[in-house]
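Now for one record.
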Amino acid sequence: MASTVKVANISPLVTPDILRRMFEFLGEVTELVMNASPHGDGFKEATIEYTTPEAAQTALHLSGTELGDRILLVTHARPHPLHLDPTKWDEMSRTVYVGNLAQTITQDEIATFFGSCGPVTFVKLAGDPTQATRYAFVEFATIEAAQAALAMRGSILGDRPVVVNHSKNPISKPVVKEDEGSAMRKVEEASRRQEAGAHDDDDDEMNGDEGVQGLEMAIDGIGITETDREEAIETWIGSQKGSGQGPRKGSIL
């Protein structure tokens, strides 16, 4: 269990000493580091390390506590995902977390509510239907729109004041599967490219193998299912055999 917590949404009026005194009530603090928020919103963030994981776990209960003129958000500290794709970093910077939503709220209502901040590109509603409230993630077209959405914190949506914070993760979106016709057209195009790039007759022994490998790469790249993949390769092999080409010795199939 981790011994470090992250504290976000800290008022600019709060000093490290004030924050340390507050969190030392829960256990011995070995290190406290406070910095300006990386989001450029004028607030501060801090990481607080305790001597024991139990103290850090207890500190999580301070989330939602008012300090100065802000409501603290306390979570387990996690290392930055440095391996994250730059595209995902961009998506995350344009995404906000929205909490305290009524069970009856819909994604369309959320999109309309935040539409005044800027174009909304995606809304993902989540949470346990058996609980009193739910939460959502809203992705905007621009970082500026996401920043504007933070000012909606406390505004009434339905019959509840919403909680709005920067999202710590990009939205996990469903993969859109291509229709069968479009997928097969790409397979056929890959086949034609392989035929056009075939070597001269003295390299015929390699052509079949290279053609199949190239076709497999093309199929993998467009997300066809394993069953469709095998069928497409078999169809291609059949057409090549009919033309006197196709896999020969050393074939991967």
